[in-house]
């Protein structure tokens, strides 16, 4: 299934953090925080101007690795894969 976000929204797949054990303590999955890094899978066309005639280009593109806020976006499941749909404004930065 393909999905194309609307307006200034992006589809992001969370990047799983590298497993780190400190002092031999294993933290269960339910206690771990969700990662705040992800890869952009799809990008909408952009935000429309006030008069509705122009579309402002997006600053991110598919394949970019980004940082986003802890509670940003809406979690969705597509073909048994978890994604987040969020506005471009919720992205804090692009990882280079």
UniProtKB/TrEMBL annotation:
GO CC terms: cytoplasm
Keyword Hydrolase among record annotations: no
Keywords of the record: Chaperone, Cytoplasm
Subcellular location: Cytoplasm
InterPro entries reported in the protein's UniProt record: Chaperonin_GroES, Chaperonin_GroES_sf, GroES-like_sf
Pfam families in the cross-refs: Cpn10
Gene3D superfamilies (UniProt xref): GroES chaperonin
Keyword Ubl conjugation applies: no
Major localisation: cytoplasm
GO molecular function: ATP binding; metal ion binding; protein folding chaperone; protein-folding chaperone binding; unfolded protein binding
NCBIfam families documented for this protein: PRK00364.1-2, PRK00364.1-5, PRK00364.2-2, PRK00364.2-4
PANTHER family cross-referenced by the UniProt entry: 10 KDA HEAT SHOCK PROTEIN, CO-CHAPERONIN GROES
Family: Belongs to the GroES chaperonin family.
Subunit structure: Heptamer of 7 subunits arranged in a ring. Interacts with the chaperonin GroEL.
Free-text function comment from the UniProt entry: Together with the chaperonin GroEL, plays an essential role in assisting protein folding. The GroEL-GroES system forms a nano-cage that allows encapsulation of the non-native substrate proteins and provides a physical environment optimized to promote and accelerate protein folding. GroES binds to the apical surface of the GroEL ring, thereby capping the opening of the GroEL channel.
Name of this chain's protein: Co-chaperonin GroES
Source organism of this protein record: Candidatus Moduliflexus flocculans
